[in-house]
């Protein structure tokens, strides 16, 4: 199959103004009758064939203006339908297709999950339901009639507002009709039919519109949907106050399903969710789960404006809705919780997921220009870097102009299928700034490196800051141009406060932002009383990789004193990384690991500083992970040496700061009733981080104490934290705890996911056999994406020493599973395969083994387009 190119975009020849869909749902098969109002576009030559997309479709009949089409008038395959010479005047096309949702294991189109009929149409799933112009720039008004057995599907839902419903006389069936007045692309279509429980509520919008809200879940889970409902109402209010955006239908429904390829889907008025992002109570959900639910509920709701009312012209513009909606959900969480803690968490996620993507064979621009399979472009680059680019734009033009630009965008493009150029033009207009160089953020792949050097001249009281940017080659992009980097900064004086200066020359400096837009810039500050320590890239103002060239003692100073919480955390992380990479090198050279005493002292100071938010302190205590260290080292990576260095650092901190950690674990351990709010979650995070570091000391009494806490825990956050500490730190109680956990939660699949993940991440050579055994466990199913991600995904991404074993057995296991999954669910298979992407960074033996595994996958007969695309790009 040929690649799709952005430069080949052209509008469709035909428009489809109205769509009427009739679904006849039966246990054995489903008949779909699609009645399409088709109109030739003005510029289309009369008689131009109408070419509709399909995917594995079975055509039953086709009629044009109610007259059956003869064989000579059309051609149809499972992959498409062409009406050879359509009339020049508007016409109606009636297409009947037959589907078998129960055998749809790809979970795209119409499928069944635990007996519930549900759909997933983004990006190209609608074409698995009926033949259509399945592209985001074809906007239609939909009416949907669903007919199903009353017993199997008492609940019948679709997009828009409900109109009529009733029993079908003389049958065991009923029907419901839904109408969505807002023109939408086919990827936002949704239908759900099943026997579901519901939590109902309502919301009054800022203009007084009454909206009925429903969260549908499996019977018995209603109480676990209450938090999701609360998050929904908070999201609706926040979008009104923060962005002036109001909801626009009479109902808003959310349905939780247990088989889902991604996190959730923003279908108009009918969001469908992976149940992981809906269901929560303190017994089964952790603080992290509550945070995830709040963020994903908000994200999908915010799509109503950024994605649904203003959609994408084509899939290359995916970041138009995803980057912007991630930015919006990040802002929501920052307002609901702690802004600095959210910023640090988001940057950690960006570094762990997006930086490796940008540095490897799968690198692509935030707006790609070419794809083989669009499902493979729902990436951290499109989502997370896409959000970072918008955040950088806000820093560059300022809050006021950013707000004016957003208002202009909503005003001007409501109802459009828009492009990134149109989006950025709104900010150029609102700010009066030429943003053509800024557009490079959308077209150049890779993470820019920002090299920082400085020099202080005491005699003249001048301080010189030299900032140079560079961007290495990425696939199909060898030459790069300098970008616009808004660099937030401060010059930190000896008392820890920011110093004043008289003038700054050599670059545009707006308040505390330096605008770097050339390959190298020297900024000269005058009137600087003494040598400052530069605090650069405060709040991570642009998605770049800073190279500090600073002595450790200066970074330690920032760790203790920087007024910017992000850079305080960053400095702690930089020093820890320095120690860990040095130790890794030492271990490989046959000497021993060490840890800087000054770092230990600064760490102790921060974690015991009661003036600081406990959640922030927990983040400072969380050391870089194995994958972070591997990324920092970059090439010739030996994961065993990294694991050794990390073990040593944790063991040293765990014993040297023993009493401090014990105190924190005790003091911040909450005995009261559980509340998922950010402050309580922060206290638990600090207590559990301290407990975990303490457990790393290997002290048997500590392990015994944690085992007690495991048994006595009154919420899942503390129980899981104890289990992880026991298993990760090789406690003799680990086996018992794992067994108890399984017995306690075997009826709750989402908790079993945690049980699977803890075992997949377990250190030690026995883990691979254990993971293999677990793939045969009754709790595991290769058909359920959550189970697959928890067991196989965790093994491949969160257990580097075992995934990248020196004997290649870890690579082989994951490759085997990818090939098996390829026949069942190619999207999930391709996502798991992405874990190989940094294979060229391993030391030569592992590199060879990983390459062989990738080649074995690439050679599999009937490989899906999804997996082929990832395998081939990884090997290129
Ligand atoms: N917009 C949604 C994307 C999505 C998706 C994409 C491909 C295959 C399955 C999928 N399920 C959901 C999710 C979001 O970003 O909001
Ligand atoms: Zn999204």
UniProtKB/TrEMBL annotation:
<dbReference type="GO" id="GO:0008270">
    <property type="term" value="F:zinc ion binding"/>
</dbReference>
<dbReference type="InterPro" id="IPR027268">
    <property type="entry name" value="Peptidase_M4/M1_CTD_sf"/>
</dbReference>
<dbReference type="Pfam" id="PF17432">
    <property type="entry name" value="DUF3458_C"/>
</dbReference>
<feature type="domain" description="Peptidase M1 membrane alanine aminopeptidase">
    <location>
        <begin position="227"/>
        <end position="439"/>
    </location>
</feature>
<dbReference type="Pfam" id="PF17900">
    <property type="entry name" value="Peptidase_M1_N"/>
</dbReference>
<dbReference type="GO" id="GO:0016285">
    <property type="term" value="F:alanyl aminopeptidase activity"/>
</dbReference>
<keyword id="KW-0378">Hydrolase</keyword>
<dbReference type="InterPro" id="IPR035414">
    <property type="entry name" value="Peptidase_M1_pepN_Ig-like"/>
</dbReference>
<dbReference type="InterPro" id="IPR014782">
    <property type="entry name" value="Peptidase_M1_dom"/>
</dbReference>
<dbReference type="Pfam" id="PF01433">
    <property type="entry name" value="Peptidase_M1"/>
</dbReference>
<dbReference type="InterPro" id="IPR001930">
    <property type="entry name" value="Peptidase_M1"/>
</dbReference>
<keyword id="KW-0482">Metalloprotease</keyword>
<dbReference type="InterPro" id="IPR042097">
    <property type="entry name" value="Aminopeptidase_N-like_N_sf"/>
</dbReference>
<feature type="domain" description="Peptidase M1 alanyl aminopeptidase Ig-like fold">
    <location>
        <begin position="446"/>
        <end position="545"/>
    </location>
</feature>
<dbReference type="InterPro" id="IPR024601">
    <property type="entry name" value="Peptidase_M1_pepN_C"/>
</dbReference>
<feature type="domain" description="Peptidase M1 alanyl aminopeptidase C-terminal">
    <location>
        <begin position="553"/>
        <end position="876"/>
    </location>
</feature>
<dbReference type="GO" id="GO:0008237">
    <property type="term" value="F:metallopeptidase activity"/>
</dbReference>
<dbReference type="Pfam" id="PF11940">
    <property type="entry name" value="DUF3458"/>
</dbReference>
<dbReference type="InterPro" id="IPR037144">
    <property type="entry name" value="Peptidase_M1_pepN_C_sf"/>
</dbReference>
<keyword id="KW-0862">Zinc</keyword>
<dbReference type="InterPro" id="IPR045357">
    <property type="entry name" value="Aminopeptidase_N-like_N"/>
</dbReference>
<keyword id="KW-0479">Metal-binding</keyword>
<protein>
    <recommendedName>
        <fullName>Aminopeptidase N</fullName>
        <ecNumber>3.4.11.2</ecNumber>
    </recommendedName>
</protein>
<dbReference type="GO" id="GO:0006508">
    <property type="term" value="P:proteolysis"/>
</dbReference>
<dbReference type="InterPro" id="IPR012779">
    <property type="entry name" value="Peptidase_M1_pepN"/>
</dbReference>
<feature type="domain" description="Aminopeptidase N-like N-terminal">
    <location>
        <begin position="20"/>
        <end position="188"/>
    </location>
</feature>
<dbReference type="InterPro" id="IPR038438">
    <property type="entry name" value="PepN_Ig-like_sf"/>
</dbReference>
<keyword id="KW-0031">Aminopeptidase</keyword>
<comment type="similarity">
    <text>Belongs to the peptidase M1 family.</text>
</comment>
<keyword id="KW-0645">Protease</keyword>
